[in-house]
Amino acid sequence: MDTLIDPTSKDYVLLQGAAERDPAGGLANACYLRLSIPLGSYWAEKTIGSRLHELKREKDVARVAILAKQYAEAALAPCVADGRATSITVSTERAAGRLNLLIKALAANGQTLTFQHPVGVI
Hints:
By secondary structure, the protein is an alpha+beta fold. It has one domain (27-120): Nuclear Transport Factor 2, Chain: A (Roll). 25% of the residues lie in helices and 31% in strands. The protein has two helices and seven strands. Strands 5-6-7 form a three-stranded antiparallel sheet, covered by helices on one side. A two-stranded antiparallel ribbon has the order 1-2. Strand 6 and strand 7 form a beta hairpin. Helix 1 (27-36) crosses helix 2 (62-81). The chain starts with a strand and ends with a strand. 25% of the residues are buried.
């Protein structure tokens, strides 16, 4: 089982000094990595990643929130296709200088995961 990565701090999650395990058997980490890695940049698998890095220089407007949602849905679709999750829904929340992706994933084992993924905008 994978050690859980916190999307906000980009570090492992520790619980009383010990590494916390991903409760959904790697689904949370798979989602995080698919959103964080630029599409096509991972040497072992060119289809892993998202286009979210393209939005770093975009303004904080509604059009960018729609694009971010579409990019995230496309990046996370393989998690449903390979059976890790039965469904993944993405919504957005705009804040000053930041766009948060709110992700709700239903793992294959029936567990529901919810987390935020920040996307920097101007």
